[in-house]
């Protein structure tokens, strides 16, 4: 049964709701400046803070709204995008929450494929600022973004909400929203300083989204991760299934064999949520789905991919081999601290004829000297910024006629998309 909403569901957001004192409305730029300033509060894993903020801001889902929660190391965003697009093809109003953004902050919050408008975003952040100023501890960037998204989804009368975890799962802010279906994409080593240094520890964090009596699904996993997921599902009495076959017989707009597995997980999650599906609905959704920055051919022979951990880099290498068989790349590469750069380059360096190194626009950026230290001597060419590296890669391409691959960090992908499109870029930390 679809949820019922009062007349407020279609009304514009009133900034006075959620505010205890009269405050001047911030402009969109002022609101974004304030929001990014909250990154000083860092990352705080735990559910008490986000639950309180969701309650204060009246941002919990309305009765009857279906919530699908997706965790995992790689493929979360693509899977969420597929769930959202198929649900919209079925005629449902869908709210999609993802992170991080590539260029525009509002990419994180979409209803029926449309980003939250700047004016409404500014109004809601104005109200949230008033609430946050009286909360101790102060909510984090990610918690505020989640509350903003959930209230916008409620205001717009979303019938299904798709939530991508930010990090882990058990203590991720998104887990403060009770889900109807939980799904886990492939698990690998990433964010080890937060989630643990073994596959078993990380799998336990991902499995933390499972809820008693609520369906749980998983992509195929390494045996160690699979065992942890099964044990946690048994402990929570969550009906649990593994996806055993990739989805065949449907055109998928996203590139790579792994996307057929993501599609199978997306369709299974929608079925568990009770959405009526048909061949035509699924086909239309998958052939029209978009997910920028993941093997995205932004122009002929120029590929962007945010492969920021070894598992993602391996999948990228496999996809490259299918898309450009027996062809090397002009690789533009960068990475940030706390990533397994050596593991990433083990998969990406063999793809490259030349490697163009540059820093990315974030305080966590590794210098080109540090990046070059992960390569054999003279293997990487160093540049002070992305613009210089890309210019050199383009010049090299004119000589060797090889495609360009920009990879190694989502920061790099976002900066590249903005540079090529001549748009402003603002880096992110969460």
Task: Spell out the blueprint of helices and strands.
Blueprint: H1 28-37, H2 48-56, E1 66-71, H3 76-89, E2 94-97, E3 109-111, E4 114-115, H4 118-132, H5 141-155, E5 160-164, E6 181-184, H6 192-195, H7 199-207, E7 216-218, H8 223-236, E8 240-242, H9 258-272, H10 279-288, E9 296-299, E10 302-305, H11 310-323, E11 329-333, H12 341-348, E12 352-357, H13 368-372, E13 380-382, H14 386-400, E14 404-407, H15 410-421
Parallel strand pairs: 1-5, 1-6, 2-5, 6-7, 7-8, 10-14, 11-12, 11-14, 12-13
Antiparallel strand pairs: 2-3, 3-4, 9-10
Helix pairs in contact: 1-4, 2-5, 3-9, 3-10, 4-5, 7-8, 11-12
Structure description:
The protein is of the alpha/beta class. The protein has two domains: 282 residues, UDP-N-acetylmuramoyl-L-alanine:D-glutamate ligase (3-Layer(aba) Sandwich), CATH 3.40.1190; 126 residues, Mur ligase, C-terminal domain (Protein-Tyrosine Phosphatase, Chain A). The protein is built from 15 helices and 14 strands. Strands 4-3-2-5-1-6-7-8 form an eight-stranded mixed β-sheet, sandwiched between helices. The longest helix is centred in the N-terminal third of the chain and has 15 residues. About 3% of the residues have low confidence.
Multimeric state: single chain
User: What is the makeup of the main sheet?
Assistant: 8 strands, mixed
Q: Output the CATH class name of the largest domain.
A: Alpha Beta
The residue fraction in helices comes out at 25-40%
Structural class by helix and strand composition: alpha/beta
Superfamily (CATH H level) name of the largest domain: Mur-like, catalytic domain
Domain count: the total is 2
